[in-house]
């Protein structure tokens, strides 16, 4: 069991009365991710709600802010009890046996146009042995071809753009890997959160995007950008792609500053401090 | 109350053993659409399941077919008890009050890239009075600019393509209207089914795509292609866009023939025959 | 006759030896644009050539620079003797009579995908009276729908992107107008230069992109962005679209600063100072 | 010296009076392609012109046809005296020494968006030894990744689409190879014509699209689709991409039938019959 303590501070300047915000900045409740304690402080005295999406478990903070500064502080301690398995024992699930609620994740979405990549996926991955290792091959294919580079992509960039321009940030790596999995008839989804252990060379800590792939009855973690230690990922939201799980969706004229984010490993309930580390095992926190 | 009787026959030639099919050809169960009776006949003696998606109510028929002909016959009698309201009494729901399960329908999707249309939507519809009439304006804007024409679009065509090339079929009209609604922060979804009363000039009866828009607590029907009588629509599936609700998703080498579809109005439980007609009221079968 | 005096200073930091530059920063020689005097100063003592493209009259300065600062100063005095005509007397040239060397300008190009806009152009402009006024209608259509806004487009943006996102800078306005002209079978080309009389609200003077349209045997000036006085345009280059006439094409690792540009009207050979002004006449400096 | 005799028959049904046609179906005059004899027969008695573009040598047949059938028969005997060289002796031309009239062929065009492929080209080909062999590597890269398949692309398909969907016809192979050459700063152009020796498995003989690349002072032939024997190519037109050199550009409502094309090797002026054959030498008919 790993316990991570994270904090994040978001800062906005609201220029239009009653600007609406939908945040996805709460640690998700999953079968293997438990929120031990958390706090939320908002500098404006406005009504706010936190709703949980019954399908995904995403938690959404919603509020309408008045003109002026808006500041959100969130802290949480999160316990991760990863399901770990040997990669060679994790099979793909044939389409015929995919649960109904998973089917949506083999269809194309806004930023993951898997429908255009069937031939490419078939040529590159079609002959590979089915199972976790095939997904790992897809993950490595993306990691090798795409260069991590800021300011080469924007919020409009899709998996196809990334494939063509061969550069991007974590979000772009995730979209391309997802599109290639779906084009191989393997369900894959976009996941956001905070990652422990990121190399400071990547700049100040930011929200992270990674991938969960449905195999052998669970959702397994992959980080195609290679910037995170998968064991150190705290999940906030999961969806089809970035269109579903922006950390903040804003309706109104609002200026923003970069988020300030921290995360550290702390001692768990048993007093032991366990650090996330790179492992060869397959990891899941959901399913 | 309107009772419609529909039948459809699908015919395939399966060239690969264990080809998988996911059909969405069952009339949906909604608060105002009731399936009075139905039958399903499949010429192959294979196991089949019909599952209902808890979120959308879509019903999915799944089966694995053997090599050779595969034929599916479905018939149903469906009662529609439309909620009808005066358009001027139907308000938009402010973003702040949109239910969590509706939020996904304001985000962009594979074929409805609303994120790229905010400025256009703002200029064209931003000054319009909020409510049903604004959505009607969007529907009419699409209907006036797009020409109904077969073979001008394909399964890869999106709302943006339709906006540029100004031609398409019902699916393309629906995608563009949905994208413009979402770009105006109005939830909209893609709906498929069979429509009663289509002009024979459009050719043999086919599956139809139309739009449901979330207003005043319910999903209201719009047919931007202008080919259907909204009161005569029987719903099969609803989703983000065509990526979610193909009437048949096929995994394997399979040849297909055009579907054969019939629909007629019949007398209801009270012995009265009520025909769908064009009305100025707002209509909903869900919500 | 108008005489304009312009100067421009370009400043680079060359980080790779033998970096290659192709500049298109010389005032073009056309039938009605005469370079009275000009000077070119380059801070590096490297061989340089100035070539004139026989087809377009574009003049290209080419050089290979050493590591370190590279600075280019260009000044010129240019006489413009516009051909002016009443718009109602300028007819379109039927395709059958277009000169061979003009034909290329009705075909689509990198940023002007006119092949996808035939239906839209036909619906919007097909019923308009042929001639200068139809082109003016196209120009106004673009000017009204597109908002001038920096940082909404980039070097990858095309006419289609501009049509969808309804915002851009002079280059984007030009691409969209060109695409719509070509989709109407009217030859149009992308022209770059410096414009006199730009409103300081648009920021420091920069290179300008505008449109020349082939009508009645000559190329007529249009400024869809509305930021320039057409009579005050000094032409540098002309081509299919921005892909052909970048003011600087650079091969190598080079940093750059914004150009510093000035232009003023001065007294001509006859001692008279004539200022460019907005006129209703059709204007041409070529043909 | 190879002498090829070709014939082609084009057949249209003109439904609109004064429909305009621009054909590029004459064998080009190049330094090494000589038209020994040719004939053109048009079934309608209408004025026609054949113009030669001074820059490319493309020959354009132009005419306005009356309502009714339009039939064009063209035959020619063409002598090809290929320049042949050992591949290892053919160097690339540094950008700094590219002739002005060649520069346009390193810029992106409608169907060859080389500007988006710089990183990909750098990663795949940047470390290769410069010269003919690098271009051969690009050609082979395309040939290996793209599957020849009809009905997978259309007239709107670009190099980017082909790269993504990994299938197409000769035109698509050519666009992708051209885009990758330009992204590597190697001038490349789109060439059309008739190819001798095509495998009947590809169906009835059709117009062919291939690539010419500028190396060591000349334009060298490449056939990325692998369907032709480069020595058997008779050139009709050359341009930036397919937008420039359609074999027929039609203005008006016109129906068309597939072209009927034949080509055979015949004895030359010296009475010798030389057959085109696959060779390892680099081949050029221009420059």
TrEMBL record, chains A, B, C, D:
Gene3D superfamilies: 2.60.40.2250, 3.10.620.30. Residues 162-226 form the Transglutaminase-like domain. InterPro entries: Bact_transglu_N_2, Papain-like_cys_pep_sf, Transglutaminase-like. It comes from the Bacteria. SUPFAM superfamilies: Cysteine proteinases. PANTHER family: BLL5557 PROTEIN, BLR5614 PROTEIN-RELATED. This is Transglutaminase family protein.
